[in-house]
Amino acid sequence: MDSDEPRILIVGAGIAGITLAQLLRGRGMHPILIDRSADSGRMIGDNRAG
Fold first, then answer.
1. Which sequence ranges are marked TM in the entry (predicted)?
2. Distance between CA 35 and CA 50 in Å, rounded?
């Protein structure tokens, strides 16, 4: 990551958070996605997010 690249934190792994993270990754950025749920990583694959 370049020092000029903004650091992006997305709070919430719901539909909007996951969509935003994917759109930013598509533009070559590296957002950090966090969620308070312990199952947030599993929810993405199970299509239960949001």
1. 6-24
2. 11
**Cβ contact 20:10 at 8 Å:** yes
Distance CA 14, CA 2 (A): 28
Residues of the chain with pLDDT under 50: none
Q: Which residues make Cβ contacts (< 8 Å) with residue 24, sequence separation at least 6? A: 8, 30, 31
What's the rounded Cα separation, in Å, for the pair 13 and 43? 9
Would you say 34 and 9 are in contact if contact means Cβ atoms under 8 Å apart? yes
**Inter-residue contact 24 to 2 (CB < 8 Å):** no
Structure tokens at 46: 């199970």
Do 13 and 34 meet the contact criterion of CB atoms below 8 Å apart? yes
